[in-house]
Structure formats: structure tokens, C-alpha cells
Amino acid sequence: MIVTGILKRGEYFDSVSLMLIAKKISELEIVLDSAAVMGTPENKSMLQTSGLLTDELQNADDIDLMIAYKCNSQNESVLISKKINEFLKKSDNTNKSSGSLNPSSLESALKILPDANLAMISVAGKYAGDEAMKALQNGLNVMLFSDNVSVEKEIELKKFAKEKGLFVMGPDCGTAIINGVPLAFANVVNRGNIGIVAASGTGLQEVSCLISNSGCGISQAIGTGGRDVKKDVGGIMFLEGIKALAEDKNTGVILLISKPPADEVIIKIIEVVKKIEKPIVGVFLNSPIELFENSKITIAKTLEEGALLAVAYSKKENIEKVFQKINTRDLELKALAEKESAKVNKNQIYLRALFSGGTFCDETQMIFQNVDKDVFSNTPVGRVKKLKDIWKSEKHTIIDLGDDEFTVGRPHPMIDYSTRNKRILAEANDPETAVILLDIVLGYGSNMDPLAEIIPVLKGVKKITSKQKRYLPVICSVTGTEKDPQNRTTVAAALSAEEVLVMDSNAAASKLAKFLIEKKR
Amino acid sequence: MNKLFENELKVINIGLKSFNETLDERKVSSVQVDWKPPLISDSSLFDVIRNNSDKIETANKEAVKRILNSKPFLTGMGKAIDVIPGMKKNLLLHAGPPVAWDKMCGPMKGAVIGALIYEGFAKTYEEAEKVAASGKIEFSPCHEHATVGPMAGIVSPTMPVFILENEEFGNKGFCTMNEGLGKVLRYGAYDESVIERLRWMENVLYPSLKKAIEKIGKIDLKNIIAQALHMGDEVHNRNRAATSLLYRILAPEIVNTNEKEAAVSVLNFINSNDHFFLNLSMGVAKVSLDAARNIENSSIVVVMSRNGTEFGIQLSGTGDKWFTGVSPIPEALYFTGYTKDDANPDIGDSSITETNGLGGFAIAAAPAIVQFVGGSTNDAVNYTLKMYEITASENTIYKIPYLNFRGTPTGIDVIKVIGKNILPFIDTGVAHKKAGIGQIGAGVLEAPVEPFKKAFIGFTNQLKNI
After folding, report:
1. How far apart are CA B116 and CA B96, in angstroms?
2. Chain B within 8 Å of A291 (Cβ-Cβ)?
């Protein structure tokens, strides 16, 4: 096996273009492993870990493009190198005949759109903070998609923004819906009177879709980035978001979504909501619920419950009905689980959950907290244990494939299914796998043709299991709406046709998986 | 309280293009910013810039004001030895930053040989080579003597030169007369025909023009360039309109003040050389930019120049210091029979036109030469539009019809070049790397990174030391 490194000095590609190139390279059959990343020190150390850092690439600078790959022979290497040059040429998007040129800076863009009120920033984290500050200084709200922005910078930006009455959504904010416009990774949902503040991207997508699919709608959905609710940042934007929704005349119900906030942030949230007349629902996954006792917030255990409670408030229905409805539905899931578990053999005892949405991984871990002592994850919460090797499942395993370790030089699994697809087949080959649990997240930003990615793999799973004379249930939740470019109904129908157990929410899918596993004991 | 919810969402998207495509699809007003990381990643240098931003801005405003307010006139002619400051009998001026004889490229060496033969220091190539290497001959950049020269840019003591005066600021500038195309000294040719032409220029062309200019008094060159931009010139790679306009002014007095035979030959010479005006457009740029020199804390570029070995720049705020890097080989259209392998690295003082907001910076005004930049007028327009990103101002006199008479991008700011990762765009002629063959193509190039990086670092270091 040989490793080849190509260094392109001074050639800058944005991360999505790069990922598309990376994907094309990895799809070449003779390529064993590959990466295409800019020459930052972080990227270099990641290449080092994967054994892809050649001597030449050691000299790369931030603005240089590094491409590295493994293959079996020198001849193959030359062939691959040729292909790569073709890919690069194609993606060179200096639009040569457009006659109009995009500006190269915020200042120049403001000359074209002087009344712009939001800057979406997705440049490398190292530079994103400065760009965000420039935007704030020019009176623009900021959605900071970039990650790897230092916490000091985040605090500086948020304090400055608060003073100027502006939002900083992020860093690492993947989704928001402002004035009905889906931003970055977001779904096309109904407009309505439910306002959301979320420190969790997938969580925001899930609840906004469930609300929309229940016939209600979203006034505003503000993302804050996951770190906002931690101790250092102290919930600056989470609290500002709540206040803004409280003031907003189009918002009648407020829905809060977060992974566990810091205790002091919880106290601040409880304090802020005291003065708010509107009903408030909170989903604080894996947070001790006692902390919210006697607060104005109606606490929901799952994203689904949170969405349905908000819907009930929005429709001015009795919220008890929500709990009843969920209980009835859970009974149906239990019945289904019983039927399914009867079809799997006695050696099939473990859950294998492979998520593209990080919040789902957390939610499922919460649902599996007490199922077994041996539950593992690459991003464990609560009693769940840390996987020794993220590439190898152990007993019950719940994985977030969007975590950094999986996405080095690769697109996010909502865009590029290949890493997860390989893993699905590996789990299908494991005779102890009792159920595979998946998510598919639709909407802008995600893969525009998810069926083309997932269906062949589902067929592959069936081939494997029928050969080995086993039945392996696959459960999948689909986060999306009718109005999403991929169309949720179409996707769900195609999955059902492959005998996938399609669920409306991750909570339902996880509960079904849980009941099935429990039946096996 | 935040007004975001009450107003229509209008987005500036900095980074991933796909996000903006979604906004387009949703019919949201948005502008895509084609962001690139800065050329220097050490953010502490940018902190220095930020901490001094007021000072820098004030200084740059002054520098640009001086460039824009300059009033360059052609006021006369003289021999280099008599008029160029610091000119000596054993001194040869050359294009670009300082370069020693043994580091000179082929065409530059050829032009030195030619000049030594022309000056009578040697009779043959071999002799001239010895003289050049002997140490008796001194070399100095044109730019350090208020002078500019295209390609090799060699100016020797007895060569006649144009005298330009910047009426607003009183400074003068000098340049030789353009020899035309083919085998010429500036491309490193030195055979008999080259020397003969130089002699004719000294003995016939020079006195005729000198008399005519004296009679006219002074010629407003800025005005000629402004008009030429409206007529399809960018006055670097295309000077046809400017040469014609100058010809119209000169012709009556050339005829008036000279014998018929001399007048006819002079007029024919100018008429047959579309680039006759080039040296003057360079001179205009030189006197305009020299007026903006030595403004403390200014990051405006006052010289971009190449000697065929190195590319060098100077900033207003860093005095006479040169910041240099290897000179690149231009992307060009080559004349039949030549390829990039034959090309010499970029050479000449002519990039002073770009430094002054002309040439490549004004290419949107010159649709006739877009084959040099990719073939379509849109390409040319895009190149000019991009240069607005790295300049401090827009020209008040030089305007581009196609861009609704927007002023050309003027006053390159090294901070913007580094911060936005956009390098100046230069029109250029390409010399054969061997002396004596001449021009083999024309094209464009991006200025190299290195001189700008060095200049940025030098500039910030100077700020730190205040």
C-alpha cells in the first residue's frame, strides 16, 4: 500500500466544495482511504492520525489545499492523481462568464445590499469570529455556522451583540428559521405562532417538523449553538432569544430545546420566564427534571413530547391529552415490538443505532438509560459507556456519525451517507444485532436524494440477513415535511416499501427499538 | 430591542455557496461573499493593523488624495544625463527593484549590452559583457530616479527622455521614447538595427519632438488618458487611442517646426507604433504615485515593478524600502512558434500603470483586448470589479463607460491585498528569455504573493515600533 499526498499551494476551496471533491475521490474504487482538506495545523494532525500525512504535506500552510490518499500501487496512484485534477478543475467555480462578480468582503457586500440585517458566516472557525464581529459592528445579526470558534471569542461576540440588540446564533449553529426563511440545515415548515429557542440543531429540526406536520407552525426558530447554555457563555443568547420571543407579537407559545444547560443557566432561564405570560414548553434532554419544578416551564421528556405540548398550547387544547395520546401510541408500539421480536432469533439481542443527527443520539441514549448496563456510545451521556473503538460496536451501541471523529475531511452524514452505509452493512453482518435504528433528516442543507443513498444499502442488509437466514428489523425516523425539497411522504413510502419501520419521530423510533430489545430478554 | 423579526430578512452569506442557493430558491434577498482566508494567518499582525486603523485610514486618505489630485503634464524633453536626478556617465537605469549584473535575466542583459554599445563603452557583445561585469558600470532602478521604463527599462546617459511635471505637487518624472515593436532594446535586442534606431531617435525624433513640445508649451496627459479610456484603451497593453490623441496634438507643430523630410519620418514613426504613448502613460502614473510617497502610516502601494528576475513593490509608508519576490511567468497568448517555455519571467516598470488604477485595473474599458484575459468582455469586467476590493478609492478622472462611468479602482492597499487574498491583476507583454529575440506574446498575470506578504509584515512591524 502506498500513500500519496498532493499539495496545491494557495488554492482555496470552501468546505462544501472540498467535501464534494473528497467524496468523489473516496468513491474511486482503487482508493483505500483519502482526505481533501486545507493545510491547517488541526487538519494536518488529523491526517497524521489516519496515516495520510506525507512529508510534502507537512509543509502545507493554512491557505494550501492538501489531498492525500492510500492505494495499492504506483500506477493506481498516478491514475487517481489524474482523476483528482479533473475533479478540481470542475469545481473551480470562478464563474468565468457571469459578467457579475460576487463581492469578496462584507464591506463590499454591504454596498450592494445596504439594508442587510443578517450575516450567515460559514468560513473556517479561525477567521469566523472576526467576520462575525465586523457584521455586528455594521449592525447585522449573525448566524455563525462555523465551529472551532474559541469560547472567549463567542463570549466577546455575544456580549457585544447583546449590548447592540443583535443576535449571534452560534458558533456551530446549523439551523434556524427567521421570518419564515429556513437557514442552513433547515426544513420548510408552516408559519404559525410557536417560537423556538434551541441550543441543539437536530432538536430544532425535529420539533419544527413535528409541529408543522401537526398542522401548527413556527413564528421564529432561533439557534444558539450548543455551547451557549454552558457555564462559560452563561446562556447569553438563549436568554436573549426567549426575551425576543416574549416580545414578538406573532409568537404565542415558546418552546425551548437544549441538551443539559449549566445549573446557573437553568436558574437564569427560570428567572427570565417568570415575567412571561405566554405558555412555555421546555425539552432539556438528560437534564434532571427536578431543577424545573415550580417553574413556569412545562417540561417534556422527549423532543416529540415537547413539540406536541407546544402544539396543544397553540391550539389551546388540554395538554393532558398529549400525554394520553403518547401513552396510547406507545401501547401500539409495544404490540408492534412484540410482533417484530417474534421474527428475530434468540441470538439477536443488541441495539445498533446509527445517527446522523447528534441530538437524536442523545435522546436515544436517554431512552435507553435503564434498559441495560451495557449501552455504549461515541458520545456517551448519563450511564452510557464510552466506546473503546468508535468504528466497532459493542453490545448495545448508539452512535452519532456527525461527531468530529467521523467527519474529518468528509461531509456531514446528513449529506454524505457513505460512512454510515458501510456501518449499516457491518451491523447487519453481526449475528447479535437485533435491530438497526436510523434517522434520516431532510430539508435544505441535507442530501437532496437520500433514497439513492439509503435504498441500495437496505437491499444489501436484506441480502445479508436472508443469506444467513435471519430477520433484522430496521427502524427509521424521518425528520422532514411535505414541503421539504425531498418530500417526507415520498421518502417514507420508499422506505416502507423496503420493509423499514418508519416512525414520525426519533422518540417513537427509539421507544419501538427499546420495546423490541426488552422483549428479547 | 432587536428589529430582525419586524423587517424583511436580507442576508449576506459569507462562506458556503449552497446556503445562498437555498436563499435564492426561497426568493430571499441575499448577497454571496466569495470569502478567502487572508494570505497571512498570524492574527497578531491584524491586531496591530486594527489597533492603528484610524491612523492608517487618515494616512491612506491623504495618499489617495495625492494620487487623484495629481496633474501630470508633458512639459519638455532632454538628455537623461542633463535632466534625470542622480544620472551619471557610468550609470545605467533599469526596470524593477535593484538587481546586480550577474542576477539579470536574458533580455535585461541584452538591453544593457545594447546600451553600452550605444553609449560607446564597447563595440561588440563580448566587450560589452566584460564592461558590464567589470564594476565600472553602475546599475540603479529607474524608480529611484523618478524614471520609468517598459520591459528592461534601460536608460543610459545620452538617451533622450520626456520630462513630465506634476503641476499640483511640483514633482517631475522621466521616461524614454517608445521604440516600437520587433527587435528593440527594451526586449533585450542589441544588434545593429537596434542601435541604428536608437541613434535615429536621438538625432531626428528627439529634436523634432522637443521643438514641437516647446512650441505647444505643455500637454495635458491626464486628459488624454481619460479620453483614451472612453475609446477602448487601458493604456498598458492597448495605447492605440492615446497614441492617436497625442498624434493629433503633436502633428501640426511637428510639421511647423521641422524640415519636411524629418517631419514625415517622425509622423510615420509615431503613426506606426500603437504603443508610442505607453511610456507616457507610465510616466503619468509615476509622477502621480511619487506625489503620494512617504506618508507615514500609509499602506498604499506606490510602486509595483519587475526586473525580470524579481517583482518588487514599495509602500507610501515604508519609504524607499523594496519588498521583493520571484517574478512569475505570465499566462499569455504566444505568437506563433513560441510557448511558455520560451517566456522570460515578468519584466518592466509598466505595472506602474496598474498601481495608478490603469492597465489591468481598467481592463473593463478595453474590450478590444479581452482575448488576453480569457476571451469575453465579461472576464474583463470581472477583473476590474475584483480590483475594487483591494483599492482604497475610485478614480475621479479615469472612468469606465461600461461600468456607468465608474472611476477605475485606484490606490492599492496592501492590507486589503493580504486580508482579502486578492492579488493585483497586471496586463503585460512577454519577452523571450533569450536576449535579442524580443516580444513573444502578451497576456495577464496576478502579482506574486511574496512581495505583498513582506510589505505587509514590514508595514506592521513599523507600526509596532512607533
Report:
1. 19
2. no
Q: Could you tell me if A123 and B14 are in contact, meaning their C-beta atoms sit under 8 angstroms apart? A: yes
Shortest distance between the Cα of B8 and any Cα of chain A, in A, equals 7
pLDDT digits (tens, 9 = 90+) for A430-442: 999 999 999 999 9
pLDDT digits (tens, 9 = 90+) for A228-269: 999 999 999 999 999 999 999 999 999 999 999 999 999 999
Quote the minimal CA–CA distance from B166 to chain A in Å.
33
Task: State how far the alpha carbon of B175 is from the alpha carbons of A153, B29, B79, in Å.
Answer: 53, 51, 11
Of residues B16, B19, B420, nearest to A104 (C-beta)? B420
Q: What percent of chain A has pLDDT over 90?
A: 77
CA dist A132 to A14, A156, B324, B446, Å? 17, 11, 34, 29
Check: CB of residue B210 under 8 Å from CB of residue B252: no
The partner residue sitting opposite A116, judged by closest CB among B1, B12, B17, is B12
From A294's Cα to the closest Cα of chain B, the distance in A is 29
Query: Out of B16, B385, B389, whose CB is closest to A122?
Result: B16
Query: Given CB atoms, is B18 within the 8 Å cutoff of chain A?
Result: yes
Task: Write the residue in A96, A106, A119 that is nearest to B374 by C-beta.
Answer: A96
pLDDT tens per residue across span A169-195? 999 999 999 999 999 999 999 999 999
Residues 6+ apart with CB under 8 A from A103: A109, A111, A112, B31, B33, B34, B389
B32/A105 touch (CB, cutoff 8 Å), yes or no: no
The average confidence (pLDDT) of chain A is: 92
User: Among the CATH numbers 3.40.50.360, 3.30.2130.10, 3.40.640.10, 3.90.1700.10, which is that of B47-67+293-464?
Assistant: 3.90.1700.10
Please give the CATH topology (third level) of the domain spanning A117-322. Answer: Rossmann fold (3.40.50)
* Mean pLDDT of the region B281-310: 98
Place of cell 558590464: B132
Runs of H (alpha helix) within B52-124: 53-69, 80-83, 106-118
| B388 interaction partners in chain A (CB closer than 8 Å) | 108
Coil, strand or helix at B50: helix
Q: Which residue has the cell 421564529?
A: A220
Pick the CATH number of B74-283 from 3.90.1710.10, 3.30.70.1060, 3.40.50.150, 3.20.20.70: 3.90.1710.10
A444 touches chain B (CB under 8 A): yes
A114 reaches B (C-beta below 8 A): no
**Closest-CA residue to B221 (of B45, B333, B353, B99):** B353
- Phi, psi angles (nearest 5°) of residue A442: -100, -175
pLDDT for the residue numbered B379: 85
ipTM score of complex: 0.85
Q: Which DSSP state fits A444? A: B
The reply to whether A124 touches chain B by the CB within 8 Å rule is yes
pLDDT at position B2 is 78
DSSP symbols for A114-178 = TT--EEEE-S-HHHHHHHHHHHHHTT-EEEE------HHHHHHHHHHHHHHT--EE-SS--EEEE
Residue of A181, A197, A239, A415 to mutate when probing chain B, most B C-beta within 10 A: A181
> CB neighbours of A423 closer than 8 A, spacing ≥ 6?
A354, A399, A401
**B 271-310 residues with CB < 8 A to A:** none
Q: Residue A289: is it exposed, middle or buried by C-beta count within 10 angstroms (0-12/13-18/19+)?
A: exposed
Contact A194, A168 (CB under 8 A): no
C-alpha grid cell, residue B61 = 486618505
| B402–chain A Cβ distance below 8 A for any pair | no
B124–chain A Cβ distance below 8 A for any pair:
no
Flag if B16 and A131 touch (Cβ within 8 Å).
no
Phi-psi region of A210 (alpha: psi -120 to 50; beta: other; left: phi over 0): alpha
The answer to whether the Cβ–Cβ distance between A181 and B13 falls below 8 Å is no
